[in-house]
Amino acid sequence: MSREDEHRYCETIRQAPSFGRFIEIHPTDEDLVKKYSIPHESITLPAHQYLKEHPLRRWIKRALGRHRSLIYTIGKNRYFRRYMARVRDNQIPYVHQCTYQYYADLIHYLAEQRGEIKHLCEVGVFLGGASVLLAQAAVDFDLTLDLIDLNPNYLGYTYELILRYIPEAAARVRAFHGDFPTYVEAGHIQRQEGSVFIQFDASHEFRFVLKDMVALRSAKEFIKSFAIQDTNLRSKEPENEIFVDLAVYAMFGFDVRYRPVGYTWSRDIWIGSDWELYLSKDRPEGFLIELVENRFGYPSDEV
């Protein structure tokens, strides 16, 4: 989908009656790809086909190789192993938005924060690659999880995918049709009991990421931390405004303190697509930011 097409879609979907609300999804035994009209080119399983056809197959194989050793080294964490077992044993199509290293870093962080973080938000679910991991974490760490996306088909697909992988997560997961600013304006962050962790992988355009950061600032006293993916993503066409990391710097300043999460590529990696995307070398795949260690860069914020 081109930039113009995506903008038109977003404007149209905002007029939907369900926009800005939690939606009720009725699971069935249907083929999820057909039920939710998912384009065939979006699906990446089975894994051997994914590796054969994906333009980054050489680096994906390398990352998978790294991940095998990850399982037996830092992967001694039983929570992460349980998640990987669910993925390995279930052949329902899904799409990974992140590297396995990114997933492992998130799981280890949530394990560290067990007892303090009580609620998870995933902003931008796509086809559930990260959502299954977060749902497993919700079960393991006694958390709740809200899925947030503009696309109701993605929400439905992801919600049902979670129930097929992790049926015991059903009482913990909700689907919100909308964007993060709308979710915050409705007071859903403020109603949570305990601290909130947010995983951002929604729009990658500077202005929309900045809107997410502004919304985050408005509910900062309820938020423990957040991770934001694709901080290494760029477009060969600057007018596409793919500057996730710069939107974070715009809100927190260039001295923002963060944990790098995920993989760091040693060379620029061409992705392609209508957006002319590539991964910029020597930049981490994501940032994990604790609000207590940072301040929003405006005079009204307390130091």
Secondary-structure map:
Blueprint: H1 3-13, E1 21-22, H2 32-35, H3 47-53, H4 57-72, H5 78-89, H6 100-112, E2 117-123, H7 129-141, E3 144-149, H8 152-165, E4 173-177, H9 180-185, E5 195-200, H10 206-218, E6 223-229, E7 233-235, H11 244-252, E8 259-264, E9 269-272, E10 277-279, E11 284-290
Parallel strand pairs: 2-3, 2-5, 3-4, 5-6
Antiparallel strand pairs: 1-4, 6-11, 7-10, 8-11, 9-10
Helix pairs in contact: 3-4, 5-7, 6-7, 7-8, 10-11
Write a concise synopsis of the structure shown.
This protein is α/β, with parallel strands linked by helices and 303 residues long.
Descriptive account of the structure:
- This protein is of the alpha/beta class and about 300 residues long.
- The chain is about 40% helix and about 20% strand.
- The protein has eleven helices and eleven strands.
- Helix 7 links the parallel strand 2 and strand 3.
- The termini are far apart.
The stretches of 5 or more residues where confidence is low (pLDDT under 50) are: 44-57, 69-75
Q: What is the total tally of β strands?
A: 11
How much strand? 15-25%
Separation, N- and C-terminal Cα atoms: 42 Å
Quaternary status? single chain
- Report helical residue fraction: 25-40%
The class by helix and strand makeup works out as alpha/beta
Secondary-structure element order, N to C: HEHHHHHEHEHEHEHEEHEEEE
* Rg, Cα atoms, Å: 18 Å
Shape: globular
Number of helical segments with 4 or more residues = 11
Q: Average the pLDDT over all residues and give the rounded result.
A: 84
Strand order of the largest sheet: 1-4-3-2-5-6-11-8
Main beta-sheet strand count, sense and barrel state: 8 strands, mixed
